[in-house]
TrEMBL record:
Homodimer. The lineage of its organism: Bacteria, Pseudomonadati, Pseudomonadota, Alphaproteobacteria, Hyphomicrobiales. The keyword Phosphoprotein does not apply. It catalyses: IMP + L-aspartate + GTP = N(6)-(1,2-dicarboxyethyl)-AMP + GDP + phosphate + 2 H(+). The keyword Isomerase does not apply. Pathway: Purine metabolism; AMP biosynthesis via de novo pathway; AMP from IMP: step 1/2. IMP binds at D13, E14, G15, K16, N38, A39, G40, H41, T131, R145, Q225, T240, R304. This is Adenylosuccinate synthetase. The active site is at D13 (proton acceptor), H41 (proton donor), K142. Plays an important role in the de novo pathway of purine nucleotide biosynthesis. Catalyzes the first committed step in the biosynthesis of AMP from IMP. One of its GO terms (cellular component) is cytoplasm. GO terms for molecular function: adenylosuccinate synthase activity; GTP binding; magnesium ion binding. It comes from Lichenibacterium minor. It is found in: Cytoplasm. InterPro entries: Adenylosuccin_syn_GTP-bd, Adenylosuccin_syn_Lys_AS, Adenylosuccinate_synth_dom1, Adenylosuccinate_synth_dom2, Adenylosuccinate_synth_dom3, Adenylosuccinate_synthetase, P-loop_NTPase.
Amino acid sequence: MANVVVVGAQWGDEGKGKIVDWLSTEADVVVRFQGGHNAGHTLVIDGAVYKLALLPSGIVRPGKLSVIGNGVVLDPWHLAKEIEALRGQGVAVDTDNLKVAENVTLILPLHRELDAHREAGAGPEGAIGTTKRGIGPAYEDKVGRRAIRLSDLAEPASLDVKIARLLSHHEPLRRGLGLPAVAAADIKAELMEIAPAVLPYMAPVSTILDTARRAGKRILFEGAQGAMLDVDHGTYPFVTSSNTAAGAAATGSGLGPGAVGYVLGIVKAYTTRVGGGPFPTELHDDTGRLIGTKGREVGVNTGRPRRCGWFDAVLVRHAVRTSGITGLALTKLDILDGFPEVKICTGYRLDGELIDRLPASQAAQDRVEPIYETFAGWEGTTANARSWADLPAQAIKYVRYIEELVGAPVSLLSTSPERDDTILVQNPFQD
């Protein structure tokens, strides 16, 4: 049996929430290992809709341990609100089924303010397209060794020194940006006020996970965003502030790389992204708008419409390589039902030269032109299919060609938001 890492293989929003929920029935532990509450997951279970941003998707399943790892940046105020919202829907969230790493970095109000100010002042050409929730500035403070961590809330006597160190960076930065000064006493008061709501969940996550692994428990690592938003391997600088590739599951949870087993890459049957940045296969026509309408392509957290385009095999090949993807979970194939033809980008043309990879530079990424192969569409529907026999032959041909182009097999095929509408080819936990 293998532990399983689930990562997005495009720019996020691929449907990870449903797949993680589907896999969580066989998992004992579900771990979020990076990102923050800028990641939105929607779960549809027996008609009930659950919208998560920070909590692991396994939280809605009784008997599962949900863990927020040290690789996450945690907004304690948002965590408290999300817990209460789920409780309002009848989901039990308590200290028995939720653990938060004691060394997790906290997002503070000054991070949110700085994020929003930078984004607003960058202009249309310079804006990254962040959610303005303080994710990037919190990661900056983490690597700058001045962050406030969850365990610091349990030691208020030493918090003054740590806040002073934090403000030694932020005070001159805020003055330079024309932002009002922040009082250290106010930061401490805010933290002490929220502390009782979040400290009960604090735990030595690395030790807990290692004990579970050695006991033969199945661990499901849940990533946020997608491979193309990885701060090293994505469309930099239009990326998130953490490593979204599967390797981050180890460092972001406190386990060694040997704990990471099967890597499942989630990929849509077409391509979307939110925010700015290169998008070689983006469609600015009626076809792109139709995909967006049929796919209900609106951000879970932000409400921003997603940019839509044809499937880009070059990008997914890149994700397969950088995350070591073992198999794919293909989602939203049903959105392409009824199209007279569908296209797949098989390569790029860059300055007249044919290439089969994503170039590293921003300027080159902006210049690449997609090379398409056109397929006839299919009659009938793939929606709600639960076996290959339910799929039109042309749809199967489309899926098989994707496998060939990206160099990874389809292990799961999702045919609706409902968890039972899934075709299983290979169980990742039985790899």
